[in-house]
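Hi P.,

Sorry for the delay on this. The queue was packed all week, but I finally got your sequence through. Input first:
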Amino acid sequence: MAAGEPVASAARPGRDLSPILTFRDGELFRDGAPHRVLSGSIHYFRVHPELWRDRLERLAALGLNTVDTYIAWNFHQRGQDAADFSGWRDVERFIELAGELGFDVIVRPGPYICAEWDNGGLPSWLTGVPGLRPRSSDAQYMAAVEEWFDELIPRLAALQASRGGPIVAVQLENEFGSYGDDSGYLSRLRDALVQRGVTELLYTADGPTELMLDGGTLPEVLATATFGSRAREAAELLRSRRDGEPFLCAEYWNGWFDHWGEHHHVREPRGSVGVIDEILEVGGSVSIYMAHGGTNFGLWSGANHDGRVLQPTVTSYDSDAPVSEHGDITEKGRMLRQRLEAFTGVVPPAVPEDRPVLAARRLFTTPAAALLPAMRAAGGDEASVSVSPASFESLGLDAGLVLYEATPILPNGASTLSIRGLHDRALVWVDGRFVGAVDTVSAAAGLELSGHGERVRLEVLVENQGRINYGPLLGQGKGILGAVQVDRRIVQGWRSRPIALAEWTSAELEAAVAGGEGVEGVEPGAAGFSTAVLEIDAAADTFLALPGFVKGFVWVNGFLLGRYWEIGPQVTLYVPSPVLRAGVNTVTVLELERSGEAIELREVPELGPAEEYIESFG
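Then the structure:
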């Protein structure tokens, strides 16, 4: 087999359980033959399952011989009930499909994955346990990990190459050296994988610095690097530390993700592919992150924190990848295909045709329930009653909104309402009158109120904008984690109602839009629910824009596309064809601040003004 040639995942009857990928003297072998891993990252949880095959075929057209995917624990186990491996969560089917298309598969089961995914893939019901220390040898944490691995790892082990499946390697944790130095934790994870049947190649992945490699590697486990530039330097560093190991870039960042309020990050195609040239020239293997990024549907997008403010990630995970969010082979993808064909001498499969897109149109919206009364109704009659506001975690709520209510006395004249420990953004009403929005920066500064020495009905709607997925604040809680104050006096006696937007069924969404008995309709331009009707002859992809709207959530036929926000950079939300149907379709918008009069379907995506990504290991 020529280096880099696409490989089939055929069964190997009678073979022992030794790994198919091995190495010696700095060279990688597949089944005894010299080999280069030419991989692309794709996440089954970011691609509608009816499009899995389509996206994998497009990765094959790039000339890749391997695909890799993270496995997001919280995607399979949002609550503490049994893990779900059905439907969209059927990761075994995704892996099998990749094998059917001739790919080797690398799996990255974490349990922590980062991935700009909510909470780094860890369930919030776990990280919300008081005193628990994630990503460590902490007994509570490891007990939960091992229980999860009891469910997950045997499913993966059965799909290893030694058993006739496509899995050729398994990653141990993820960039742990950027987080901690508990080598005992890594050793326990390694043992947990091996004890549950993993026999293929194990590896760690860390940034190419002494600090990160010191904390994230284990003896006798292949050490790999993640980076976006300076491949020769990374290769030299790894080879100086791990004599005899092959050079593998486990994540080559050929693009980058976006935060709300920033620019859309891109990498110039020629320079981006040039780094892959450099990796190959120094004898390395590579996995392109992302080869196809997909979408943070629902409320799965994570967040970063810069030490001062939360940086929530946008709904799109296009990542300026060779295969775009909606499946087009980009200029970068075409250049990559040519480069890999020249390197391997193998002509990749033909590039699939672009997917059909609906014609552009404008859909006028119909106002429904107003925001505050709708949220009161959606929160139901049952509420947590406590002295202090309840956190999302204590309410058993992973994502969405919480409506808090108290009845403080406002002093006569002017006073200031402040919220300590707000995570992440709040809308505030006094006696049903909207008085302002606050976030993590402005909450402590407060809102100016005017009272008459009487009790008022104070209502605070708090939005979880995505859980932190990277760094020391991983696992941080959501909601009001401190105190609400009127001047220096703490407001006590709260009712807290969880509003689980991400878990609503179509029927629950329809009930929320209707608002319930006695719920007033929204006035044009006001915050709240609105709907639009789309009639089509056949389903196709489209891109939804919300001019005139400010911030909120969008559903199509009961499917939660994700968040939108006028601060950008993302302007359009990708609507994959499987969520549409021939005939009548319903678009539902929950606007938190100011509604527009119409939504637009566009024929091309608009992800915002572009900015070249610059790598940093700060």
